Amino acid sequence: MRLSRTVFHYCRQRANKDREIEEALARLAAMHPEMGFGKFFAMLRREGKGWNHKRVYRAYCEMKLNKRRKHKRRLPARNPDPLSVPQAANHCWSADFMSDALWDGRRFRTFNVVDDFNREALAIEVDTSLPSTRVTRVLDQIAEWRGLPVRLRFDNGPEFTAVAVADWAEQNNVELEFTQPGRPMQNGFIERFNRTYREAVLDMYIFESLSDVRSQTERWLEIYNHHRPHDSLGGMPPSEYLTQHKTGNVYS
Do 99 and 107 touch, CB atoms closer than 8 A? Predict the structure, then answer.
């Protein structure tokens, strides 16, 4: 074959040595198909794997798991308002709606609530209709185990500007904060969460019923809050970040 014996042995040894890495990457890719190399490498490190970054990336590319980057079109600077991170949990929650469709074409909505401090997903309510009374019911359910927030940030949707939500906030001494129309990044934490949820769940699966959406959402929430590393949290999941940053009375 006109192949050097040393080269042959080197290739075979490298393949054997990388087999464990490839098996670990295949397992993560099967469990989290929406994630890329950065998340996989952080999760391997959290599992105690000490493999070199370049070595893992080489195996990642050889398995053809590397995703095509989506480059954004360059836009002029807009000088967005800064979005500050709260100093403790329950200082500010963000909430927003999303919509999608089942396999038969029926539309459904989700009501998502996130704690801005540790990006923890507090609730994702799924149904065909989510009026303002349903919104306040979800907030009460969260408050039973989490406590009440100091501030609640919304956009200007009709469900949020309804009298029922205003009455709920007044009764519970919660400040309502509304973003300006056409300024979604004023609610950037929930907007980023919505994108992650859509890529990992809504765009990843075909749903035949609302129960399918709810069950898949619950499974994903467990991963998101307790296992998925977040770059903005130093590579920690929200639950671990909250545990390490409890200062004083974290919950209301």
Answer: yes
Smallest CA-to-CA distance from 201 within 33, 11, 24 is with: 33
The model's pLDDT over 159-217, given as tens digits with 9 standing for 90+, comes to: 777 888 999 999 999 999 888 776 767 788 999 999 999 999 999 999 999 999 999 99
Angle, in degrees to the nearest 10, between helices 37-46 and 5-31 = 90
Strand-strand pairing, 175-178 and 151-154: parallel
User: Are 159 and 135 contacting, i.e. CB atoms less than 8 angstroms apart?
Assistant: yes
**CA–CA distance, 109 with 75 (Å, rounded to integer):** 31
Model confidence pTM above 0.90: no
pLDDT in tens, 127-163: 999 999 999 999 999 999 999 999 999 887 777 778 8
Backbone angles phi, psi at 34, to 5 degrees: -85, -10
